[in-house]
């Protein structure tokens, strides 16, 4: 069975060698003796941070659509924000009725749903990108 340096992953020519002939580090008895996995340093691939669903939902709850901006789609988020603010304004000025608050709540729920979809889509896309890198 071939021996590998535990530090750099170099395959040792001499199985009884006390030191690695590549990096010079001492070979311990605990050295892995598998030839399938070689220790490769983690490359400098960009790390995709998962978007936080709770944070996105809180943002969209406070300011409709802003959670979508946080998720990465600025244009869509602002469109939802402006759209909902305008609709809400129209509802409260033109359609003064007892159901207006219910419609406003429905709009907030709508914005939260769009935010939820957006965060899921962005996280799924990033996970796919991550998988393709390795
Ligand atoms: Zn070595």
UniProtKB/TrEMBL annotation:
Segments spanning the bilayer are 53-71, 78-95, 101-122
- Which keywords does UniProt give here? Membrane, Transmembrane, Transmembrane helix
**Top-level taxonomic group:** Archaea
This protein is called: Uncharacterized protein
């Amino acid at each position: 069975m071939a021996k590998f340096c535990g530090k750099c992953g170099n395959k040792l020519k001499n199985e009884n060698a006390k030191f690695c002939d590549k990096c010079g580090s001492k070979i311990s008895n605990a050295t892995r003796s598998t030839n399938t996995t070689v220790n490769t340093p983690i490359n400098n691939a960009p790390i995709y941070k998962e978007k936080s669903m709770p944070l996105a939902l809180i943002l969209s709850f406070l300011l409709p659509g802003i959670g979508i901006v946080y998720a990465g789609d600025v244009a869509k988020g602002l469109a939802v924000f402006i759209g909902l603010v305008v609709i809400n304004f129209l509802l409260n000025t033109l359609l003064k009725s007892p159901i207006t608050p219910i419609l406003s709540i429905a709009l907030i729920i709508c914005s939260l749903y769009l935010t939820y979809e957006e965060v899921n889509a962005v996280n799924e896309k990033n996970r796919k990108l991550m998988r393709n890198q390795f």
